[in-house]
Structures are given as structure tokens and as C-alpha cells.
């Protein structure tokens, strides 16, 4: 009989309790109903999903959540309920309260603002607000890549079609949620970014890409987010997969998707949450009872049932039957419980759950969040083209000329005062995220002009002139439109996902043609097209001469649009993903002033730049969290160093930084960083050009190197190349064909580490001995050995370590007749060397953890015992680290494939970089 380990509450020996913890459920209504109370009290429901149908205001939400948690506490729940919410911003916010909850741009709108740091601040602000009313789990970030961006209903909820950019902004958002104390849930695994809808409302959308194709694109952001270790949960979609290696009807019910792909291949250890099993296709094809069991068998820990009480009871009954039929074991249930409990402990407690700060906190933070919202929207509005210089309208139109606004009929977004007003009049039901994805409400059309009525009024007020406004439908251009077009001097057409609502595209092209004909007859007929959702509507259609994108049509976005149209602000937004890159050529001629780095002037700016990079970076660059502005300054008598910055002389902010070094004929770029908000405008290009000009003009220069081990901040290009750096450096003149691979490794739990059986005996039989030296007095043979087998900066690294006699030493491996076979540097926790090699410092998540270092093992490659010598040096290093009370040991760096024998010793690979060396002749034009 299965028994619980000590880490789980004995209460869960009762399987009714255990099963309740594996379900996440919602209901309709703004008050606690007898049904949801029964689910919590009698069926021990452990997680609740809140949607727009439950929430009227921030104050009501705080009371509702507090009541739910009180019911759970009184019913004997050992841990508070998980309270989950979709709060993606843009058009997908379940909680709206214009007095206390701020509206921010959609994910794609945030990317359009070109600032991952801004995305982090928005995510932190959003999570702080929902946490104040008791929410402890945000269903986000969205990590989908819009592989087929033009026709996907996910639209602006996704960052874009570039997997690296999606990773960057997804990780920034995730960090923001976590720093606000809220649990995170990546979605929608394996991807909702390229779905093929087959037509019927009962059809399940299908992924047709192969696993190889998914791995190269759609899975990249999920892989990177998982690698950070900060992703608490993963939402597994309900889509199908049809390719040669996989035929799956519902991803969340497939062991191939959850256990094999998500857990085994991508290494996810958190909570897997299924798509809502109330979806019509699943109910009709499989049935909820069987579907619930299949979800758990597949590896899901939380099974979602959105709102139908009878279906929810059916799911509970299904899980009990699954246990009775021995399809689900107790061990399987307890595995999920451990994951769920771990997540609950990370984001809530009874003290926190029963006492949400509510309005008192929201009132305090609201002004600051409003300012952030205003900046975010102003920065996100993108003017893609303005060929006729129609903007601002105050310059291209006289006040007495008439302006015509033509808008489609769309459903109000949930996060809007209009939806709130209509709800209060009970004219419509809110459309939630789960309505769209579960019940297949894919239409974007709704009767009524109200959504854009306030846009027209605001625009008329702002330009102090007459404005005509009417809607258009699938009926095309009608006589009323023709009459108004004849009257107006300028026409603004609004589109909302015209690629999926084709009548909008047809209407816009018809009006565009009319305007061209009227202009040919001498009339003034300017045309502006505004895409208020997907930017792909007319992004590539050059016949639309003035094209603006807002990325959502909330009232806040429309207010920012008015400011752009009337010249109150200068638009800064850009197209997302590959569309931005296609416009990069237009920006590439920009040159920036590059100045020498000044420590007194620039140190703070460099520290801020490093923090922005750390928040925005993929896992391979997480060492930036422990890098300081002083990490780059060596002050070594044997190394010339010259560092450069691009900066804002008015604000002292650094937009870019490049560190260069020259030692024994080798010129080295030891760092090249650009503010994530300032990429693709040639800052990196300007810095690299200045750095290479300086290096290639050095007397005696023999080679130029990209990547450096001392300081060990920028060892080279990450092997996974998550930011597309190889192509960037190739474009800058580098030949990247022959890299040297450098690997950072670690033993994460040194206390429990045990040397492999037989290793010490093998070393002894080979006649290899070891000793530890400090200081330069007796280190001549060490320096000679390093000079013969390593690059010049590594020699200086050894010199530095030998001089740090209190915190560093060098272990020597000797063979017969005292012949030196290999060396390695060993560091105590907190050594001076750690300030130059960030992986040797404790992570921000565990600041008190002592980290020992084993640095730069150098083994003569000609030695027949090279592998055994390397393992022996690592073994001696680990023993020294243990002696110094280290809890973790970092081995930085191991060359090429030499790291493989160290895996058998218990080391794990943390980072892999590629260092490159080129001839100075590659940049002759810089001389």
C-alpha cells in the first residue's frame, strides 16, 4: 500500500482530498454560489479560476477572494487556494476597474515599445495590482510564437513571430510577476502560434509542424523560460498535433506532449495545467470523465473545468473512477500534489490569503502605475509609413476641413468602461479568454458603434475641428459612405484584424481607390489607415501610404492614438519581430557618438544597463545578474584596456558598452552590450567599429578575439545563440567557422556530492600526485605551463590568482619525475577573483549560498593521461571547496569536449560559449 512521505499533509491519505487539489475550477457569478462553496467544502477543490464574469471591481474582487479563502480555511484546507486570473493586458484582462486597476498595452504592443525593461515594469505593476486583491497565480506570460502571424487568432496577445524576441519579453514579464510575489504560468504549450482551423466549431485546431520545426521556433521561448528556473506552471493547450512523428487529438491529454516533450525533453519540473476540458470537441469525442483521467495520465497536475457545475462533478467522479480502475496510482497523485504544494508555498500563505491589502495598497500605487501606463501606450503607437506627411493632422489639415472616421463593428474588449457599462445594463455577456478558446467564439464582429465613438469625440476635441463618424460592415461601401467621403478632406479608416475579417480589407481597398480617383480630379482626399489590433493588416501593402498600429483598442490605446494624430507626442513604436528586422536597413545608416568609458561618470549608468540586460536576457546570460560595473576593469600592468560607451549626455544613461583588451599581440572584445530598448538602431555596430579600429591599430597585433576568460563576463557567443548573435557578428566582418567551445559547469549540492567510486585509485595507479601552491615565488613552472598551453589572458588570470594568496591557490598535477601535467585555480567563496568571474558569485535567488570556484583547468593535450589529469584536478578542487565550506562549486571554464568526463563526476553543464579568433586583416578598412 502506498504511503505519504513526510513532506505531504497526512490529510491527503484521503483520496477525496487529494483529488480535489488536482482540479482548478470556476463558475459564473460575482458572488459565492452554493455550487462553488460545495466544491471547496465537500470536494476539497484546491484552485479557483476567476474570469471577467466573476469580477465587477477591485473592491468586490478582494472581498470575493477573501470569502473563498475563508471558506477553504474553515473547511480544513492545509494550504490556501490558488486563485488564478488571466490579466495579459491589451484586450485580455479579467479584472477591470478604472479607479484602481491600470490598463497596459498588449504583449505585442509592449514589444513595439522596444523595451524589455518596460515589459518587466508592466508585468510587476500588473501582478502587484492583482496580488492586492488576493490573486496569487497569473496565467501568463504568453510564450507563443506567431509562426504564421498574419492569420492567427492569438494576434497581439503574442509578442510576435521572432522566437528570440518572444523569449526576451516573456522572460522579462515572468521576472516582473515573480518579483511581485505572484506565481507564473507559461502558455500555451506546445504553441497556439500556428494553428490550422478546419472549419466546424467542434473541430480542434491543429498544429501541423514537425517536432523539428517546433523545436527551432515555437518551443524556443518555452525552453528558455523553463531554463531560468522561475516558471512555476505551464498551461498545456487543447489543440491537436498532426505530423509524421505525432498524431495527437488534444495536447493536454497526450503523454507524448506532457511527460515526454514538456518534462523529459525540456526539463520542466513545475505544475502542468490542462486546457479547460469543457471544450466542445473533447466533450463530444471523449467525454469529460475519460478526458480528466487522460489528462492526469498524460502528466497534467491541475485539470481545468471552467464553469459548468454538472461537468465539474463529472470530472471529480472521473478521477475517482480512474483510481478505482487502477488507471491512476496514488504515487501519480502524490507526485502532482508535491508540485502543487511547492507552488502554493512559493506564492501564498494563510496570513497573505486571508488579509489581502486591497484598496489601501491600490490607492497608494495607482498614480505611479497610471504614469507607467501613459508612457507605455505613448511608446507603443507605431507609425509604419507616412509617405504623404499627413501627420500630425494639425499640419496637414485646416481646422475648417472635415475629417471622416470610418470604423468597423467590433465587440468591446473586456477591459473597458464600455463593457462595464453594457454589463450593468445587461445588454451583453463578457467574452473571456476561455470563451474564445474553449467554446470557439472566433468572431470579432458585434453590433454597435460605441467602441470607437469616444475616439471620434476625442479626436474632434483635440483638433478643434469638425469630425464625421460612421461605421462600416460586410455590406461594403454604401451611399452614406460615398457622401461622407466626398465631403471630407481626410479619411481615417480603422481596421481590427482585417486579415481574418476580410470585409475590412476589401472596404479599405475600395475607399483607397476612391480617394485616388478623387485626388486625380483635383480634390484633397488624404487617407490614413489605423490597425487597432494585428499590425499585419496592411504592414506590407505599400498602397496604403500612411499606416498606424496601436496593438489594441482599449480606451487608453485610443487616447494615445489621438495624441499621435494631433502631434502631442512623437510616435516611437516599431513593428514586431521579423517585420522590424525587414525595416532594419532603413535604420542601419544611423551613427552614434562613441566615447571612452569614464568610471566616475559612467559606472552608475553601466550598472543600470547590466540590470536591464539581466532582466531581459535568456538563461545563457543570467550571469549578468551578478556582474557589476567594476567587473571589466583589471588594472593589470600586462593588459592594456580601453572601454567605450554610447550614452545620453543629458540623462547620463548608457545605451551601449564595449570592453576591449590587448595582451601579447592579441586584441580582445571582452564585452559588447546594448540596452534592450535601443537595439536595431546601430548602437552595437557603432561600438564594435570603434573597438575594432582601436585594436587593429595596435602595434604588434597578431589576432583579434571575440570572448574573454579574464574577466569572465563575456566568454563568447552562447552556443544556443538565443539572440541571433552569430549572424550579427558575421555581418560585422567576423569569420565564425572555427569556434573554441568553453563550458561552465557546477556541482549544485556540494554537501551531498560523493567522489565516483574508483577514481582516486585510478589516479594513484597512474602515478599522478597533486599539491597546492600560493603566491608567485614558486610558481615559475605553473606560469610556463599555462603560457605554453593557453591564451595570453589566461596567463594573466593565473598571475592574478597566485597573488591573491588569502583566497586563491593553484593545484598542480604532477607525473613521473615531478613533470607538470596540469594546473587549476581554486577559489574560496567571496574571493576577489569572483568579482571578475560572475558565475563564482551567489545567485540573487540564494544570496547567502557560499560558492567555491575551480577556474581554468589547463592540461597538456599531449599527455596520454589528459582525461585522468583533468578529473583529478576537478576532484582536488571540489575537496578544497568543501574544506572552505562551499555549498556549491562552479567550474569555469572547460575547453571543447573535455567537459564530458566531468559529467560522470556529478558536474552539470550550466553554460556553453563559443570563442572566436580572427585575423586583423578582416577589418583592414578600419586602419
UniProtKB/TrEMBL annotation:
Gene3D superfamilies cross-referenced by the UniProt entry: Glycoside hydrolase family 3 C-terminal domain, Glycoside hydrolase, family 3, N-terminal domain
Keywords: Glycoprotein, Glycosidase, Hydrolase
GO molecular function: hydrolase activity, hydrolyzing O-glycosyl compounds
SUPFAM superfamilies reported for this sequence: (Trans)glycosidases (SSF51445), Acyl-CoA N-acyltransferases (Nat) (SSF55729)
Domain Glycoside hydrolase family 3 N-terminal: 16-342
GO biological process, one term: peptidoglycan turnover
Protein name in UniProt: Glycoside hydrolase family 3 protein
The organism of origin for this protein: Thermothelomyces thermophilus (strain ATCC 42464 / BCRC 31852 / DSM 1799) (Sporotrichum thermophile)
Amino acid at each position: 500500500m502506498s504511503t505519504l512521505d513526510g513532506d505531504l499533509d497526512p490529510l491527503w491519505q484521503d483520496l477525496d482530498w487529494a483529488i480535489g487539489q488536482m482540479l482548478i475550477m470556476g463558475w459564473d457569478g460575482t458572488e459565492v454560489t452554493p455550487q462553488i462553496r460545495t466544491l471547496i467544502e465537500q470536494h476539497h477543490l484546491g484552485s479557483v479560476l476567476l474570469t471577467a464574469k466573476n469580477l465587477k471591481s477591485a473592491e468586490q474582487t478582494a472581498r470575493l477572494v477573501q470569502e473563498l479563502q475563508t471558506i477553504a480555511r474553515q473547511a480544513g484546507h492545509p494550504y490556501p487556494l490558488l486563485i488564478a486570473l488571466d490579466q495579459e493586458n491589451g484586450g485580455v484582462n479579467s479584472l477591470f476597474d478604472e479607479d484602481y486597476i491600470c490598463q497596459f498595452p498588449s504583449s505585442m504592443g509592449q514589444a513595439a515599445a522596444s523595451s524589455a525593461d518596460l515589459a518587466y515594469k508592466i508585468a510587476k505593476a500588473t501582478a502587484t495590482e492583482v496580488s492586492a486583491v488576493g490573486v496569487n497565480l497569473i496565467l501568463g506570460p504568453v510564450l507563443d510564437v506567431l509562426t504564421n502571424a498574419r492569420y492567427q487568432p492569438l494576434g497581439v496577445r503574442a509578442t510576435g513571430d521572432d522566437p528570440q524576441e518572444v523569449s526576451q519579453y516573456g522572460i522579462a514579464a515572468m521576472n516582473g510577476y515573480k518579483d511581485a510575489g505572484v506565481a507564473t504560468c507559461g502558455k500555451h504549450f506546445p504553441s497556439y502560434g500556428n494553428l490550422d482551423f478546419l472549419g466546424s466549431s467542434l473541430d480542434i485546431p491543429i498544429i501541423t509542424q514537425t517536432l523539428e520545426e517546433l523545436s527551432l521556433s515555437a518551443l524556443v521561448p518555452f525552453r528558455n523560460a523553463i531554463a531560468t528556473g522561475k516558471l512555476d506552471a505551464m498551461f498545456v493547450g487543447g489543440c491537436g498535433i498532426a505530423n509524421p512523428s505525432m498524431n495527437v487529438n488534444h495536447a493536454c491529454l497526450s503523454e507524448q506532449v506532457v511527460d515526454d516533450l514538456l518534462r523529459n525533453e525540456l526539463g520542466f519540473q513545475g505544475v502542468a495545467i490542462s486546457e479547460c476540458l469543457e471544450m466542445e470537441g473533447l466533450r463530444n469525442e471523449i467525454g469529460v470523465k475519460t478526458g480528466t483521467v487522460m489528462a492526469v495520465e498524460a502528466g497534467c497536475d491541475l485539470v481545468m473545468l471552467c464553469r459548468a457545475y454538472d461537468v465539474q462533478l463529472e470530472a471529480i467522479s472521473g478521477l475517482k473512477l480512474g483510481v478505482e480502475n487502477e488507471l491512476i496510482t496514488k504515487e501519480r497523485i502524490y507526485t502532482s500534489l508535491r508540485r502543487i504544494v511547492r507552488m502554493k508555498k512559493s506564492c501564498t500563505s494563510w496570513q497573505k490569503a486571508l488579509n489581502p491589502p486591497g484598496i489601501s495598497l491600490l490607492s497608494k500605487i495607482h498614480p505611479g502605475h497610471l504614469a507607467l501606463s501613459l508612457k507605455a501606450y505613448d511608446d507603443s503607437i507605431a507609425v509604419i509609413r507616412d509617405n504623404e506627411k499627413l501627420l500630425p493632422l494639425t499640419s496637414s489639415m485646416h481646422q475648417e476641413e472635415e475629417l471622416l472616421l470610418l470604423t468597423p463593428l467590433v465587440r468591446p474588449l473586456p477591459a473597458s468602461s464600455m463593457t462595464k457599462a453594457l454589463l450593468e445594463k445587461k445588454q451583453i455577456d463578457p467574452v473571456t479568454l476561455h470563451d474564445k478558446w474553449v467554446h470557439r467564439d472566433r468572431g470579432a464582429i458585434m453590433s454597435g458603434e460605441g467602441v470607437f465613438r469616444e475616439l471620434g469625440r476625442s479626436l474632434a476635441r483635440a483638433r478643434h475641428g469638425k469630425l464625421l463618424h460612421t461605421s462600416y460592415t460586410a455590406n461594403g461601401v454604401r451611399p452614406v459612405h460615398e457622401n461622407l467621403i466626398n465631403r471630407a478632406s481626410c479619411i481615417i479608416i480603422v481596421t481590427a484584424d482585417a486579415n481574418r475579417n476580410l470585409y475590412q480589407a476589401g472596404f479599405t481597398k475600395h475607399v483607397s481607390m476612391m480617394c485616388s480617383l478623387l485626388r486625380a480630379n483635383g480634390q484633397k482626399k488624404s487617407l490614413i489607415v489605423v490597425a487597432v489590433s494585428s499590425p499585419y493588416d496592411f504592414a506590407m501593402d505599400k498602397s496604403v501610404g500612411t499606416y498606424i498600429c496601436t496593438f489594441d483598442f482599449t480606451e487608453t490605446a485610443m487616447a494615445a492614438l489621438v495624441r499621435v494624430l494631433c502631434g502631442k507626442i512623437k510616435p516611437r513604436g516599431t513593428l514586431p519581430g521579423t517585420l522590424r528586422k525587414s525595416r532594419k536597413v532603413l535604420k542601419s545608416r544611423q551613427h552614434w557618438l562613441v566615447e571612452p568609458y569614464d568610471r566616475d561618470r559612467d559606472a552608475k549608468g553601466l550598472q543600470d544597463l547590466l540590470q536591464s540586460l539581466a532582466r531581459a536576457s535568456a538563461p545563457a546570460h543570467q550571469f549578468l545578474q551578478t556582474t557589476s560595473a567594476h567587473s571589466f576593469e583589471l588594472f593589470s600592468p600586462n593588459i592594456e584596456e580601453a572601454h567605450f560607451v554610447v550614452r545620453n549626455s543629458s540623462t547620463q544613461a548608457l545605451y551601449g558598452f564595449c570592453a576591449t583588451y590587448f595582451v601579447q599581440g592579441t586584441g580582445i572584445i571582452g564585452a559588447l552590450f546594448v540596452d534592450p530598448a535601443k537595439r536595431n538602431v546601430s548602437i552595437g555596430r557603432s561600438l564594435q567599429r570603434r573597438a575594432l579600429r582601436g585594436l587593429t591599430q595596435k602595434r604588434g597585433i597578431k589576432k583579434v578575439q571575440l570572448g574573454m576568460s579574464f574577466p569572465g563576463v563575456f566568454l563568447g557567443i552562447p552556443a544556443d545563440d538565443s539572440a541571433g548573435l552569430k549572424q550579427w557578428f558575421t555581418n560585422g566582418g567576423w569569420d565564425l567557422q572555427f569556434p573554441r567551445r568553453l563550458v561552465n559547469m557546477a556541482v549544485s549540492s556540494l554537501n551531498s556530492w560523493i567522489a565516483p567510486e574508483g577514481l582516486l585509485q585510478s589516479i594513484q595507479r597512474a602515478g599522478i600526485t597533486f599539491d597546492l601552491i600560493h603566491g608567485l615565488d614558486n610558481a615559475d613552472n605553473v606560469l610556463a605551463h599555462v603560457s605554453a598551453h593557453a591564451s595570453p589572458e589566461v596567463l594573466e588570470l593565473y598571475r592574478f590568482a597566485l597573488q591573491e594568496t588569502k583566497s586563491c591557490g593553484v593545484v598542480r598535477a604532477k607525473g613521473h619525475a615531478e613533470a607538470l601535467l596540469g594546473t587549476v585555480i581554486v577559489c574560496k567563496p567571496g574571493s576577489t577573483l569572483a568579482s571578475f568571474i560572475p558565475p563564482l558569485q551567489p545567485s540573487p535567488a540564494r544570496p547567502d549560498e557560499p560558492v567555491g570556484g575551480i577556474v581554468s583547468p589547463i592540461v597538456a593535450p599531449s599527455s596520454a593521461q589528459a582525461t585522468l589529469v583533468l578529473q583529478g584536478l576537478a576532484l582536488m578542487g571540489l575537496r578544497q571547496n568543501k574544506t572552505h565550506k562551499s555549498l556549491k562549486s562552479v567550474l569555469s571554464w572547460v575547453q571543447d569536449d573535455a567537459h564530458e568526463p566531468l559529467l560522470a563526476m556529478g558536474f552539470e553543464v550550466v553554460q556553453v560559449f563559443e570563442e572566436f579568433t580572427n585575423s586583423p586583416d578582416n577589418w583592414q578598412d578600419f586602419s
